[in-house]
Specification:
By secondary structure, this protein is of the alpha+beta class. It is built from 17 helices and 39 strands. It has five domains: 100 residues, Rossmann fold (3-Layer(aba) Sandwich); 70 residues, Dna Ligase, domain 1; 107 residues, ATP-grasp fold, B domain (D-amino Acid Aminotransferase, Chain A, domain 1, 2-Layer Sandwich), CATH 3.30.470; 119 residues, 2-Layer Sandwich (Glycoprotein, Type 4 Pilin), CATH 3.30.700; 67 residues, OB fold (Dihydrolipoamide Acetyltransferase, E2P). Helix 4 packs antiparallel against helix 5 and helix 12 runs antiparallel to helix 13.
């Protein structure tokens, strides 16, 4: 039995649901806090009690310390778990929780402060003789001085926000001409995300690996490392896919890194779960990056290879218990991967997305597959909304195997059985990534995605025959036209004296693909001249159906939003446009020259003036959304005909920003 009886989780989404699962197993009551945007969220439904703490913007809800403490007092909670993100690494919050007489399930405020700023933490590590990447970590922040420091270090350099993480406030700079613009962007983003525009400058290591050590410490001075995670596969300096243990890492280096991480934690009086992050070079030289004083998003891969529940460890350590295991008791069992399913568009530089989940099917969970999520699909396609106000993560798909090859096969199968329609997602990208030969060989670095860009993000190709056939059957199923043994109950085009042919035109990219289906025998004529015999092999279910194509059975789901169709089957999530003659004109693209906001956000910079001549690719306007900056560039040479937004304006998705003639 635990001493803690009720925990308020000061977070939302997937991490709140994750903590609640452990609490339910331990018999601990849970309290959810939620914003107006999350009133119907899964974490609110799962909790024993829930308290509304404010409007959608995080600063008015999840970042409001007074409101969270008031919710804890109102519900009689005796502890607060901060999750990760929001206030999880906020020393002021940890202090306020303790002063309110509550248990903070995290490290002491002093440890958070010690590692809270990248510059300050690097100074501490330098004193502790932990290897550092060459760079400037001081307080002087004027542009001229920082530029001179960059020149001393030698290009390329990396500008990084001193506070926070997650790739926000970070810019690569390859020569002096780019420095001023990059510095201004990093400082803006840092101030918006963390309320602090201070940056540091470091030498940019060209092909390192990102390897982090999971550490745990109790209040009695004991500390252990729970091995490492390789988080090298990243886009925009944000992690996409993680694994444990790191492929190819020698036992000697593992021990050295682990001991260095434990020493770092003990040097600041650390308590609880933390992560010490390193850059690892080819010869296994490693350099301290930062310490995250919280549980990490990727903690499930550590749980899968150790068989431990790290949230339970957090709770027991917060209660004053000794660590359950000593270093010599810990062992690595097998291998694990975690893939982050995001609402984002990989084809547009992973532009974050938003919108309602219309169809969602996760892989079946087992000893080898786990799904951590904070969203779900409600009946009839009316699912949760990925909001513009928070991180666009939908779920984490986690797979384990007895070795790396087995774990990777389980991950591939899990991704192939994950289907989603609604906002654009990275599901196809994740599938391509896990099936890449170099990734399968463990040849990873922080530049993996850039180096394999064309293979991971191939140019659009013609849709497969199966996709077109299933799209046509999906439209028929939507109408209720399916095979039936009872001719009077058949809603297809069957008629006395003969059948009828349905003609469909689907569009992918700029090309149209005609498909004809003869009813009631369901012979499908495809654009390349092939004919395939089809048949329904089961009743429609949740926007889906089972069908036979040329003797092979497919389970498919086809979701249609106006002219836009999502065709999902056997590891495929493909999008088509259905040129429905009853809805002619739908889906027309914006007229040339109208540059619009890719998603709701705030205009933070306008780089051109009325009448200015611009060239293709020139930055025109910068919009901040989801705490990331998105630069709108000129699609062609032209002249600025009109500017419809100013700095500070809040704009909606598809809001016209600039007219280019």
């Amino acid at each position: 039995m635990t001493k803690i009886k009720k925990i308020l989780i000061a977070n939302r989404g997937e991490i709140a649901c994750r903590v609640m699962k452990t609490c339910q197993r331990l018999g601990i009551a849970t309290v959810a806090v939620y914003s107006e945007a999350d009133a119907g969220a899964l974490h609110v439904e799962m909790a024993d009690e829930a308290v509304l703490i404010g409007p959608a913007p995080a600063r008015e809800s999840y970042l409001d310390i007074k409101k969270i403490l008031a919710a804890a007092k109102e519900t009689g909670a005796d502890a607060i778990h901060p999750g990760y993100g929001f206030l999880s690494e906020n020393a002021e919050f940890a202090e306020a929780v303790s002063k309110a007489g509550l248990i903070f399930i995290g490290p002491p405020p002093g440890a958070i402060r010690a590692m809270g700023g990248k510059s300050e933490s690097k100074a501490l590590m330098e004193k502790a003789k932990v290897p550092l990447v060459p760079g400037y970590h001081g307080d002087k922040q004027d542009e001229k001085f920082l530029k001179s420091e960059a020149e001393k270090i030698g290009y390329p350099v990396l500008i990084k926000a001193s506070a926070g993480g997650g790739g926000k406030g970070m810019r690569e700079v390859w020569d002096a001409k780019e420095f001023s613009e990059a510095l201004a962007g990093a400082q803006r983003e840092a101030k918006s995300s963390f309320g602090n525009e201070k940056v540091l400058i470091e030498k940019y290591l060209v092909k390192p690996r990102h390897v982090e050590i999971q550490v745990f410490a109790d209040q009695k001075g004991n500390a252990v490392y729970l091995f490492e995670r390789d988080c090298s596969v990243q886009r925009r300096h944000q992690k996409v896919l993680e694994e444990a243990p790191a492929p190819g890492l020698s036992a000697a280096t593992r021990e050295k890194m682990g001991n260095a991480a434990v020493a770092a934690a003990q040097a600041i009086g650390y308590v609880g779960a933390g992560t010490v992050e390193f850059l690892l070079e080819a010869k296994e030289n490693f350099y301290f990056m930062e310490m995250n004083t919280r549980l990490q998003v990727e903690h499930p891969v550590t749980e899968m290879i150790t068989g431990l529940d790290l949230v339970e460890w957090q709770i027991r350590v917060a209660e004053g218990e000794k660590l359950p295991l000593a270093q010599e008791d810990l062992q690595i069992n097998g291998h694990a991967f975690e893939a982050r399913l995001y609402a984002e568009d990989p084809s547009k530089d992973f532009l974050p997305g938003a919108g309602q989940i219309q169809f969602l099917r996760y892989p079946m969970e087992s000893d080898c597959v786990r799904v951590d999520t904070g969203v779900r699909e409600a009946p009839f396609g009316d699912g949760d909304v990925i909001s513009i106000y928070y991180d666009p993560m939908i779920a984490k798909i986690i797979a384990w195997g007895k070795d790396r090859d087995a774990a990777l096969r389980h991950m591939q199968d899990a991704l192939d059985n994950t289907y989603i329609a609604g906002p654009k997602t990275n599901i196809n990208f994740l599938r391509a990534l896990t099936k890449n030969r170099d990734f399968a060989a463990g040849m990873v670095s922080t530049h993996f995605i850039a180096e394999h860009h064309d293979a991971l993000l191939p140019k659009p190709s013609a849709p497969a025959d199966e996709t077109l056939a299933l799209a046509a059957l999906g439209v028929l199923a939507e109408r209720g036209e399916r095979m039936s043994d009872d001719p009077w109950g058949d809603l297809s085009s069957w008629r006395i004296g003969g059948g009828e042919t349905d003609a469909f035109i689907f569009k992918s990219g700029e090309k149209e693909y005609p498909v004809k289906v003869s009813c009631p025998d369901l012979k499908i004529a495809l654009p390349d001249g092939k004919t395939v015999q089809a048949g329904y092999a089961g009743s429609p279910f949740d926007l889906g159906f089972a069908a036979q194509l040329g003797g092979k059975r497919y389970e498919a789901a086809v979701y249609r939003d106006g002219p836009h169709m999502h065709v999902m089957y056997e590891g495929h999530n493909e999008e088509l446009t259905y040129l429905d003659p009853l809805h002619a004109g739908e889906g027309d693209e914006e007229s040339a020259g109208r540059l619009t906001a890719p998603m709701p956000g705030k205009v933070v910079a306008v780089r051109v003036e009325m009448g200015a001549k611009v060239t293709k690719g020139q930055p025109l306007i910068i919009v901040e959304a989801m705490k990331m900056e998105h630069t709108i560039t000129a699609p062609a040479d032209g002249v600025i005909e009109a500017i419809h937004a100013a700095v500070g304006d809040q704009v909606s998705e598809k809001h016209e920003l600039i007219a280019l003639k």
